[in-house]
Design brief:
The complex is a heterodimer of chains A (119) and B (114).
Chain A: E1 4-5, E2 10-14, E3 19-21, E4 24-25, E5 32-39, E6 46-52, E7 60-61, E8 64-69, E9 74-79, E10 88-96, E11 107-109, E12 113-118
Parallel strand pairs in A: 2-12
Antiparallel strand pairs in A: 1-4, 3-9, 5-6, 5-10, 7-8, 8-9, 10-11, 10-12
Chain B: E1 4-7, E2 10-13, E3 19-25, E4 31-37, E5 43-51, E6 54-57, E7 64-66, E8 76-78, E9 87-94, E10 104-105, E11 109-113
Parallel strand pairs in B: 2-11
Antiparallel strand pairs in B: 1-3, 3-8, 4-5, 4-9, 5-6, 7-8, 9-10, 9-11
Classes of the chains: A mainly beta (119), B mainly beta (114).
């Protein structure tokens, strides 16, 4: 079963508007971390934001915020005031932290969402 | 500047040849990782190492080998046993202290088998 699901292969947003990229996850581990990465056309993976399963508040990092709904197992990325430079592939990833999870340090990635910001 | 370097950026290989991809980090990170990315897909873990002289297989280790003789270096060898090696390879590192333990990535090597 897929652990990370990103249902939007492609998204378009007008410059200066906000956009939400969806991510749902599946785990029985009570302790886990959720990550978002940006991959521009150059290929490098750039870390954006992190949310821990026990964090009480949604994570924010500049124009990025994470809409974490634990009961729904969703961790959507919100980008406010989109810029042309935000055009890239965005990946959601999860790391199960419990010792019982076995390979506890492994990141599992979704298939990504290609975001295009329109001028 | 602290970071992760990978070389070469592009690599071409003939079928049946082994090839080694380089990954070096100067972040003083304990853990290092190798991922493979195929077009339109997410990353899949090949191997990871939490400490020098120790490494574990990831989800798709068959046809690959690694070594970790130094903390800073984690080279990946793509052997002739790897049936479909054409892909984008990304190396990452992290402190490996549990909790947040964010992985940071290098620029990647694009391998093409001719």
């Amino acid at each position: 079963a897929q652990k990370i699901t990103q249902t939007q292969p492609g998204m378009f947003v007008q410059e200066k508007e906000a956009v939400t990229l969806d991510c749902t996850y599946d785990t029985s581990d009570p302790s886990y971390g959720l990550f978002w990465y940006k991959q521009p056309s150059s290929g490098e993976m750039i870390f954006l934001i992190y949310q821990g399963s026990y964090d009480q508040q949604n994570a924010t990092e500049g124009r990025y915020s994470l809409n974490f709904q634990k009961a729904r197992k969703s961790a959507n990325l919100v980008i406010s005031a989109s810029q042309l430079g935000d055009s890239a592939m965005y990946f959601c990833a999860m790391r199960e932290i419990s010792i019982l999870s076995g390979s506890a340090r492994q990141l599992t990635f979704g298939s990504g969402t290609q975001l295009t910001v329109l001028p | 500047d602290g970071g992760i370097t990978q070389s070469p950026k592009y690599l071409f290989r003939k079928e049946g040849q082994n090839v080694t991809l380089s990954c070096e980090q100067n972040l003083n990170h304990d853990a290092m990782y190798w991922y493979r990315q195929d077009p339109g897909q997410g990353l899949r873990l090949i191997y990871y190492s939490q400490i020098v002289n120790d490494f574990q297989k990831g989800d798709i280790a068959e046809g690959y080998s690694v070594s970790r003789e130094k903390k800073e270096s984690f080279p990946l060898t793509v052997t002739s046993a790897q049936k479909n090696p054409t892909a984008f390879y990304l190396c990452a590192s992290s402190h490996d202290r549990g909790g947040t333990d964010t992985q940071y990535f290098g620029p990647g090597t694009r391998l093409t088998v001719l």
